[in-house]
Amino acid sequence: MTDTDAGPVRSLADARERDAADPLRDYRDHFSVPEGERYMDGNSLGLAPDAALATLDRVVDEWKKLAIRGWEAADPHWFGYGEHLGDLLAPLVDARESEVVVANSTTVNIHTLIGTFLDALPGTPAGPDPTADPPAVLVNELDFPTDHYAIRAQFRQRGIDPDDRLVAVASRDGRTIDEADIEAALREREDIGIVFMPSVLYRSGQLLDIDRVTAAAHEHGALAGFDCAHSVGVVDHDLGSAGAGDAGDDAEGADFAVWCSYKYLNAGPGATAGLYVHERHHGTTPALAGWWGNDKSTQFELRRTYEGADTAGAWQIGTVPMLSSAPIEGAAELVREAGIDAVREKSLALTNSLIDLVADRLGDDFSVGTPREHARRGGHVAIEHPEGYRVSEALRDRGVVVDFRPPNVVRVCPAPLYTRFEDVYRVVETIEAIVDADAHREYDPRGGGVT
Predict the structure, then answer these.
(1) Are 70 and 79 in contact (CB under 8 A)?
(2) What binding partners and quaternary form does the record give (predicted)?
């Protein structure tokens, strides 16, 4: 295992020594690393691994040779491919295989899962008591915007004013969310029926205490759901009931979660998303029911009445997009082979080094908005600077690929399967050279476009 307690990287020689001792060092050879670049944007889009390209090529070949017969004759067959991929991902979130499926996009999964569980609560048209006051959903003000867009839309579709029922926990510092404030919000609002939080805040990289949030929600009588887009594949999650015994434990485990597959899972741009639903909710009718979520044994009887699968597979909507899903198979196998615990260990060691180097090498205009405590840190680091956008542009022109998030955050992500300690050292060295020469001032302030 990578030693997260090893001393800081003070020199290029230190970095190379750490790389030589890294048990995951050979995994870099499995990725298409852009020549001449330091790629530090894996929290937005992971690089292409050979295993993902191989499974995509296999499915393309099956399409050419088998055509429609691939739904049953391919290996694994396409008909159950979303469930097959869910089986591969389940250990990464410590869930039962039946609790995970690959389906839809992240935003669509938020729509269907929030909608499903709103419909199970009093105060909604389909709920057990439509005459009760509508339930509220607890979020936070630092969420990625799509989460709020989807939840607001689900409220509107039920005739509920989202301004009244979407409750946002405020940040104390503009960077992080204190779990104590989530607990306080639950005490203040009896009407909260769902708590929906990110596992990792997209801007600062703070890792929330999922167990604590889940316990607080359940004690309140609310459901606990999570957007794990910035953590699956780099954080060793414990979402489900895999470790709760044969019968599971209804008091433990998050109720539902969503994530994308193109960040730390490295399955490519637009790769199909994933979702998790605790087994205690299996059999619930999804809010966005579709034929691909029907029980597989009767799906092609094409009945007029939906008969949902008794697994997370029920939350599939349309036909599995094979070419957007196939890379997940190889990519997930690579993460499983490396071991999620080892991936997490190296991630922490890399971000430790990055944070230390920022403190040691960069001036007072720079700060780190990511918590230093391991239990509160995801896989990327938020480097803050008043001219963060211009710094990020200068870095890109010098072969360092990062991204910018308003108002002042340069996000730097040393993805552990293909990033070296030397890369981290060189990135900070490049930032230092840029600001020492005032080179970032040659760039215009932020305009539009993808950052």
Answers:
(1) no
(2) Homodimer.
- Rounded CA-CA distance 402/386 in Å is 16
Q: Do 17 and 103 have their domain in common?
A: no
* 199 and 185 together in one domain: yes
CATH number at residue 142: 3.40.640.10
Q: What phi and psi, each to the nearest 5 degrees, are found at residue 259?
A: -165, 165
pLDDT at 245: 45
Q: Which amino acid is at 172?
A: R
65 is catalytic: no
Q: Which domain holds residue 286?
A: 58-336
Tell whether 258 and 161 lie within a shared domain.
yes
**205: closest CA among 265, 142, 259?**
142
Percent of the chain beyond pLDDT 90?
93
Average pLDDT, the chain: 95
Selecting among 27, 155, 226, 262, the annotated active-site residue is: 262
**Phi, psi (deg, nearest 5) at residue 342:** -70, -35
pLDDT tens digits for 377-436? 999 999 999 999 999 999 999 999 999 999 999 999 999 999 999 999 999 999 999 999
64 part of the active site: no
In a domain, 325, yes or no: yes
Write the pLDDT tens digit of every residue in 232-284.
Answer: 999 999 997 665 544 445 457 999 999 999 999 999 999 999 999 999 999 99
Q: Which of 14, 28, 58, 144 is catalytic?
A: 144
411 is known as an active-site residue: yes
DSSP state of 235: B
Whether 262 is a known active-site residue: answer yes
Residue 79 annotated among the catalytic residues of the structure: no
Distances (CA, A) of 262 to 224, 259, 347, 451: 24, 9, 17, 16
pLDDT, one tens digit per residue, over 163-201 is 999 999 999 999 999 999 999 999 999 999 999 999 999
Within-domain flag for 192: yes
Which residue in 143, 227, 356, 403 is the catalytic one? Answer: 227
Structural domain contains residue 444? no
Beta-sheet strands, E only, within 27-84 = 38-39
> How many residues comprise the chain?
451
- What total number of domains does the chain contain? 2
Look up the pTM and report it. Answer: 0.95
pLDDT given for residue 251 in this prediction? 56
Q: Which range among 232-246, 286-300, 310-324 shows the weakest confidence by mean pLDDT?
A: 232-246
